[in-house]
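Help needed: design a sequence for this.
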């Protein structure tokens, strides 16, 4: 990196740091960054992310993986935490209701396919790194 580029980057960072914090905007950007990182992770592992879902402060993805439909709950505790997020309060029945609602409106091509429930826990370590724990088939059996 040239000295000019380094000086421009430093000036940009200093100007950004001088801006007053906007809590709502900051929270949305953290959530969006978390969602984007999780989606990149899934796509890089060959998942076909079909849609997202949201229910009672829970968020996740619906994706196809090797012929199965995976309902993937995303857990995040923000940026700079020293541990992955704790288990949420969403029950198996609530997770199944998300699946039922989505499958009712799904493409007709999705018949006779296994369904599973995954959990993806993510903590953002810094601007370009995250620690991810992907628990495939978190409930222990296909439905």
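Sure. Designed sequence:
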């Amino acid at each position: 990196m040239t000295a000019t580029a380094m000086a421009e980057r430093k000036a940009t960072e200093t100007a950004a740091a001088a801006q007053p914090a906007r809590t709502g905007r900051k929270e949305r950007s953290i959530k969006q960054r978390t969602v984007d990182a999780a989606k990149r992770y899934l796509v890089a592992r060959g998942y076909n992310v079909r849609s997202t879902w949201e229910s009672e402060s829970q968020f996740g993805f619906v994706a196809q993986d090797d012929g199965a439909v995976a309902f993937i709950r995303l857990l995040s505790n923000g940026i700079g935490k020293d541990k992955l997020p704790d288990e949420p309060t969403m029950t198996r029945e609530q997770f199944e209701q998300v699946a039922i609602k989505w499958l009712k409106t799904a493409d007709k091509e999705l018949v006779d396919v296994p369904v599973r429930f995954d959990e993806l826990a993510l903590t953002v370590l810094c601007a370009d790194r995250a620690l991810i724990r992907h628990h495939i088939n978190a409930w222990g059996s296909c439905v």
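The beta strands are 48-55, 58-65, 68-79, 115-126, 129-135.
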